[in-house]
């Protein structure tokens, strides 16, 4: 209905009622009839909307997932093996009965975004030849009380009915982003989320029976710490499988999988790309291959080369190159800032700088590209302090040349503070081994400032000792806007004063 008609009706109807009342017409029956008709209309509208929504949900769930096997998922060998063992309880039902093993009721997949949790759930359905019913946590959230709980009941009922209809012994229910409905319950007011969670707990309690079909709930979240303890206990989600970021071997596997339908040049080395993509998730690696193909098409060449993949890594990590043009003074400040990072990185970790660039990407006006890092999961106090010094190198260089800092150091400071927090939690500061909740904010800030000021002083001292590198590298960087790692190390060999 057009908006002007609604506005005209809102203005006209009250005037009409007042006029009829003024001329002596009894308005009570008309008002009662209007209220009843309006209430009936609202009820029908609500039921219709809910029915339509539920019907669309059911239709969406009945779409069969694409056939996917565990072999088609790159990396995650430990997670896949643990999931297979859990799924064997569905396949080898008679054998586990012989040993008196209670079948698992639920499997919780946890880990960072983009690591393949949803893919593993789809592969689980194919592995067990089960009916696969999927839903997202947000589908159960409604403003109307009881709607979410009703949809939970419909979800489990739909899984049983489909298994019976397709003559299958097993059904898998997959709930993505379960933290939306499975968050910790708080005392006091009753929320719609709580009713939905209570219904899910009730359904999971009733899963195991000798009757067919056998149901298994698989859920995924990247915020396990937010889930209610009633969900996490044995008998509900019995297995918690961590799906971590892939290591180098897994990254190579993922890149090879996504390169299957792309024309790669024979000289492309995906092992090297896997090294450069340190810390990337599976989704980011897929994006790298996709962006490399886009760069190839943009240049009107037939095959993807190593340079396209390197540019794709930069784009996924920092964003697309922007058209912003800086004035000469700003460009010089950015160059000094980035050279500060690069010099500190080369001083504390020789050979680590691959490229220094002034080309703007995303929100960054310049950046330093580092050579591939070694796979590392434990960090010493010295390593973390060196990482902080690399992060502070840009601000320290600005202070040396300009006597002050700029807003370009904000991300560097944030990174440094996060590393200091890690050191505190790990007992690597003068605070010793502490419970962070028992230390006052004043004490934490005092320790944080002391560490950062001490490391900033060391950073400025090292940069001042190697100031000739700025003068020689700055000219090249300002002219060419890119300084390769080899050019940079050449400047070091000619001008650097290495630390003792």
Fraction in beta strands: 5-15%
CATH top-level class of the largest domain: Alpha Beta
Name the helicity range: 55-70%
- Structure classification: alpha/beta
Keywords:
500 residues, alpha/beta, Rossmann fold, Helicase, Ruva Protein, domain 3, 4 domains, three-stranded antiparallel β-sheet
Describe this structure in words.
With 500 residues, this protein is of the alpha/beta class. It folds into four domains: 3-61; 70-242, P-loop containing nucleotide triphosphate hydrolases (Rossmann fold, 3-Layer(aba) Sandwich); 248-318, Helicase, Ruva Protein, domain 3, CATH 1.10.8; 328-495, Methane Monooxygenase Hydroxylase, Chain G, domain 1, CATH 1.20.58. It is 56% helix and 8% strand. The chain contains 18 helices and eight strands. The protein has helices spanning 3-22, 28-61, 77-91, 93-98, 117-128, 147-165, 192-205, 229-232, 248-258, 270-276, 282-298, 306-318, 328-348, 381-402, 410-425, 441-465, 467-480, 485-495, and strands spanning 106-110, 131-136, 170-176, 214-221, 239-242, 353-357, 367-370, 482-484. The strands form two sheets. A five-stranded parallel sheet has the order 2-3-4-1-5, sandwiched between helices. Strand 3 (170-176), helix 7 (192-205) and strand 4 (214-221) form a beta-alpha-beta unit. The longest helix has 34 residues, at 28-61. The protein is extended and about 95 Å long. Mean pLDDT is 80; it is low at 47-65. Pfam families: AAA, AAA_lid_3, Peptidase_M41. One of its GO terms (molecular function) is metalloendopeptidase activity. Belongs to the AAA ATPase family. The chain crosses the membrane at residues 12-44. Keywords: ATP-binding, Coiled coil, Hydrolase, Membrane, Metal-binding, Metalloprotease, Nucleotide-binding, Protease, Transmembrane, Transmembrane helix, Zinc.
